[in-house]
Amino acid sequence: MAGEGEKKPVLEMVQADGADEGCVTFVLHDEDHTLGNSLRYMVMKNADVEFCGYSITHPSESKINFRIQTRGGIPATEPLRKGLNDLSDVCQHVLNTFQVRFCFRFNSN
C-alpha cells in the first residue's frame, strides 16, 4: 500500500497464479461506472474477447475491478489498450462535433 506522499498506481494488473495472459483482472483506481461501462462496451466489440465485465467493490471505494478474458491466447492487455484508444477516439469525435456545432450556432446569431 502506498504511504503518505506516494502516488498509488492508476492501473494494477491482477492475475491468478498459473493463469494465462488472456485472463486478467485490471484494477482501475479513482474511476466509477462512467469509465467502467463505456470501456466494457468498447472492449466487447473486439471479436477476440470472450468475456469482459467490471464491478465496483464498494460504493465508498473509487476503484473498478475490470475483467477481460480473450480467445486464442491473445494477451488481455491488447483489447484493453485498443478499447481505451477507441474510447478516447469516440470522446474526441463527440467533443469536436459539439465544438463545431456550438461555435456555428454561436457565430450565426
Automatic annotation (TrEMBL):
CDD domains noted in UniProt: RNAP_I_III_AC19
Keyword terms? DNA-directed RNA polymerase, Nucleus, Transcription
Segments forming domain DNA-directed RNA polymerase RBP11-like dimerisation: 23-96
- What is the taxonomic lineage of the source species? Eukaryota, Metazoa, Chordata, Craniata, Vertebrata
Matches recorded under PANTHER family: DNA-DIRECTED RNA POLYMERASE I,II,III, DNA-DIRECTED RNA POLYMERASES I AND III SUBUNIT RPAC2
What's a GO biological-process term for it?
transcription elongation by RNA polymerase I
Sorted alphabetically, the Gene Ontology cellular component annotations on this record are:
RNA polymerase I complex; RNA polymerase III complex
A Pfam family annotated for this UniProt entry? RNA_pol_L_2
Q: What's the protein here called?
A: DNA-directed RNA polymerases I and III subunit RPAC2
Tell me where it resides.
Nucleus
* Entry's family note: Belongs to the archaeal Rpo11/eukaryotic RPB11/RPC19 RNA polymerase subunit family.
Molecular function (Gene Ontology), one example: DNA-directed RNA polymerase activity
